[in-house]
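Sorry to interrupt, but I need a hand with the structure work. Could you write out one complete protein record for me, on any chain you like? Just paste the record in under my message, thanks.

. . .
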Amino acid sequence: MFEQIKNIIKRDWKKIFIIFLILLVYYGFAIFMAWNVYMASFNNGHNSLAGMVLSSIRGLLENTIFTYILIYHAMIPLFHNRKFGRFFMIVLGILVVKIIVSFWLDYGLVHETYEISMRKTRQDNDSSMAFKYWVLENRKLFFLASLVIGYLLNLVVIFVVALVIDWNNRAKTQKELEKQKLDAELSAIKYQINPHFLFNSLNFIYSKTVPLSDEVSHAVLLLSDIMRYALGKEEDANGLVSLDRELLHMKNVIDINQMRFNNKLSILYNENITNHKARIVPLILITLVENAFKHGDLLNPNEPLVIQVDVDDSKLRFYICNKKKKGTKELSTGIGLKNVRHRLQLMYEKKHTLKVQEDDNFYITELTVNF
């Protein structure tokens, strides 16, 4: 839990800080007004002032956390999904809860502040005595009005600022996606001769190996299919492919590696798929499996490579665990996993999690994607 909180703060500290600054202005004004009442009462309101300051500090910290969760995890997602009915229900519901809690926690302090002001008014024979008596008699109404106005004003200001920041981030992400797509298209044009040469060569090798070895010819055929898939022949306009096709080619990668080791690799594969219409960023799962083949010790039947795939209408869960290879490690730049993280972030943003756990013996990767 603490690790999750740490990651959230590290990722969204700028958003939290902006909310803190806006609320600081509001609560700073409240403390300033309390100070004026304190000075007007010739120190008779020391306890009231101290209570008001402590209440404001508590409210500042609580509302910074609460407003961050409310806006970034409820209001903005509902706004983008055009669920305006639920949007306003949440705002009104929170307003009712806030009024009840504030009356319970803070009304006593406000009542004492009004009393201090009235005592000073009596001492000075203030000409506005009648009006201040009326205010005191209706202090609950004034307290309620200040709560509603303060809550809505803060929420509107913070929501507008957060929405502008969110739109700006979305625009940057879209621009980066378009740039990557353009770079990919330019690279494809630049190297368009190479795939033809590669596939012609593979077809030639396949035709020559068919009479000699079924296993070798089958391996060449699998390799050819994987290469066609890797070149993006099956992507849609959004850069996604069928999850079933990704899993099919992932199994092809597993088959080729089994051939490399004479079918001696220990692999425990299990899938539970109820949604066959799901789509995913291509080569993500394949890269994670290749990483296990590269760095894992898969020859021990008691400690096999474990791959678990669960897919339903709401999400994909991909789990892979391998025993780490002993001795000298293969040279690795980490580009594969870094690329996976980057592509997932661009496509899914907060709709995914990629957890990597590592100890002296095992390497575990768990990917969750919400559709």
